[in-house]
Amino acid sequence: MKSYADIENGVVPSVCSLDCPDQCGLLIHKKDGKIIKIEGDPEHPVTKGSICNKVRNMGQRIYDDKRLETPLKRVGGKGEGQFVPISWDEAIETIASRWKQLIAEEGAESILPYSFYGNMGKLSAEGMDRRFFHRLGSSQLDRTICSVAGSAGFRYTMGGSFGSDPEEMTETKLFIIWGVNAVSTNMHQMMIAQKARKHGAKIVVIDVHKNQTGRMADWFIPILPGTDGALALGIMHILYKDNLVDRSFLKEYTVGYEELEGHVDQYDPQTVASITGVPVEDIYKLAHMYGTTSPSMIRIGNGLQHHDNGGMIVRTIACLPALTGQWLVKGGGAVKSNSGYLSYNKEALQRPDLLKKPTRVINMNQLGQALLETEKPVRSLFVYNSNPAVVAPEANKVREGLSRGDLFTVVHDLFLTETAMYADIVLPATSAFENTDIYTGTWHQYLHLHEPVIPPYGESKPNTEVFRLLAEALGFEEQALKDNDEALVQQAISDVTTPYFPDITYDELKNKRFVKAKNTDEHLRHLQTPSGKIELYSEQLERKGLPPLPTHMPLIEEPDFSFLFVPGPNHNFMNTTFANNDKHVKLEKEPKLFMNQEDAARLGIENDMLVRIWNHRGECELTVSVGDQVLPGVVVSQGLWSDTPGKKYLVNALTPDRIADMGGGATFFSGRVNVEAVRGEKTV
Ligand SMILES: Nc1nc2c(c(=O)[nH]1)N[C@H]1C(S)=C(S)[C@@H](COP(=O)(O)OP(=O)(O)OC[C@H]3O[C@@H](n4cnc5c(=O)[nH]c(N)nc54)[C@H](O)[C@@H]3O)O[C@H]1N2
Ligand SMILES: Nc1nc2c(c(=O)[nH]1)N[C@H]1C(S)=C(S)[C@@H](COP(=O)(O)OP(=O)(O)OC[C@H]3O[C@@H](n4cnc5c(=O)[nH]c(N)nc54)[C@H](O)[C@@H]3O)O[C@H]1N2
Ligand code: SF4
Ligand SMILES: [Mo]
């Protein structure tokens, strides 16, 4: 049978590779060997044929004129963008000889990989790359930029990333969409909620910004950033006081419910209202709604945990369904991430045994600091699946580090990204459509195999192939560094020890394309917490010096600045992916800063003015949108925009590289800024 990539005309199956919880099944329409249309796969059990506009327009990114076709070598200064094409042989030889020299002179720890999930495929994002860097003995990267604080928080309560099944949520009667801009970032969650609404379900959205998701809610609750833990504790206070807790559930499935009852006494509605900005009567109303509606479901977002106290916030919210016994109700409970159900054979895929002795670990949120460190400096950076010059916090430090003349930087990407502009060598990457890979759901619970649907673009190569080439050039003999992609998939899905991973072979997966995690009915009786139960009281946290019971912990003060600044993602980009594609930029128009009218009036700022946003870390300039979408004292922007000549769109110039309370997580949304009009004139 012809491979999908060789089919010239027809429709072939695929799956979305982007860092999005929906992980949609796709159908790719081809004509004369090229993609002419991308649509949803109606056979996919959860995404059912609908996809977002971003990926509907993905073809324009795949065939964008700006896509890299060959390796490049820098000929101008760092950041200037002058490159000439070179062969793969020369590129690999240049990297290998430089690294051999560095290893001999300063040790392999002077080399740092930097990657994230530009492609969610296990082989591409955490497969051959991990094997290679383990064998190399380079510095290791702690991949903390996205959701680790919340995942750690959820784990303290529930033992791991195990939440409710979206396929059961058609039964749900109350959705609390908490700190997640689901219309843009998890559209099928919103579609399920809307369908349930037709049968009487209510949708409550709790957010610092009344954005596209808040506008669709039956009830939108605005809240001050970083205070959601206090709101959850206020709800607990009322649930206990008004006898809305399920004591038999608490007794059987939890530890610490009696200590928690005494502890939440201090979180009376008045106190909580003063912390959160949510009025007392709304706290009562929400607690009673939550305590009396079944099934009730909390979708916990990533917005909540990009804060100094993000781990504790998620841990606290994750306790709520235990108080009401909702974990046992079909369509009830909570979901932050469901990645635990499909946790595959990581040892076999990543081969940590290839790392002969422990090496230093660098937190990716502190890349700027790491590159500016003069003791044991990082001498070489290898970037793939990520664009740190725009996405990492303290962007000015990151760029200062990337500008270092003595730093040998390699970037493997589909485009000449802002980061690639600082590279010595740029390598062209295939898109996920050109690769073999497996994808494991993080929200729905399906495993997917992806086979290439088009041939490689130009001379581009997949991540797995680049690391095989580098291993060969460095003289690494291990078979693990030679395995082909099919072998990698087989190793990842074989001998999996978790009870939920489906028993499946490569060929079966090839035929079925998507397979669900196994039945999890008994899950609550075998949680992976130390006690095996839901831990309302956590001794683990106590040992770490954190409060063992859920507790409101205020954000770190930055006293000279008036506004909390929340620079989140936008609708038409995926982090910086699509921020360089004309179609998506046109749809998004321009980045805005949302500000409350009271603040704007006080500062003499009018709608559509260009404003300067600044703090001790840096500055940027955005057009202001004045209104009631945010509370006073808060400003919000959307999107990680590309460097554009004459524009200062780099929001991460302002964000802190402080580390969150748990997991080494990012604190993008806990920074403070001042805002002032730039010229007093309107931009439109
Ligand atoms: N269209 C689109 N989709 C995406 C992405 C994208 O860039 N664009 N990125 C993908 C990635 S990598 C991720 S991690 C997810 C992220 O997607 P989400 O989980 O939705 O997270 P964010 O969009 O960062 O933040 C969600 C919401 O939290 C709010 N928020 C911020 N701070 C607080 C707070 O303290 N309390 C409350 N209640 N709300 C708060 C923000 O206003 C925002 O509306 O989306 C993925 N999907
Ligand atoms: N201010 C602020 N900053 C944030 C966030 C925020 O909300 N606000 N969100 C944070 C979060 S949650 C995340 S997850 C990060 C995301 O940050 P990144 O993971 O850096 O995400 P992208 O910007 O999409 O960059 C992915 C890059 O990978 C490339 N790529 C895609 N597929 C492949 C492949 O197969 N091989 C190779 N070699 N390259 C490939 C793409 O072309 C793209 O340039 O950003 C973080 N930064
Ligand atoms: S980005 Fe998300 S919603 Fe869009 S196609 Fe991919 S998985 Fe589906
Ligand atoms: Mo993310």
From TrEMBL:
Organism from which the protein derives: Bacillus thermotolerans (Quasibacillus thermotolerans)
Protein name: Anaerobic dehydrogenase
Keyword RNA-binding: no
Keyword Iron attached: yes
GO molecular-function terms, A-Z: iron-sulfur cluster binding; metal ion binding; molybdopterin cofactor binding; oxidoreductase activity
Family named by the database record: Belongs to the prokaryotic molybdopterin-containing oxidoreductase family.
Keywords: Iron, Iron-sulfur, Metal-binding, Molybdenum, Oxidoreductase
InterPro entries listed in its UniProt record: Asp_de-COase-like_dom_sf, MoPterin_dinucl-bd_dom, Mopterin_OxRdtase, Mopterin_OxRdtase_4Fe-4S_dom, Mopterin_OxRdtase_prok_CS, Prok_Mopterin_Oxidored, YoaE_C
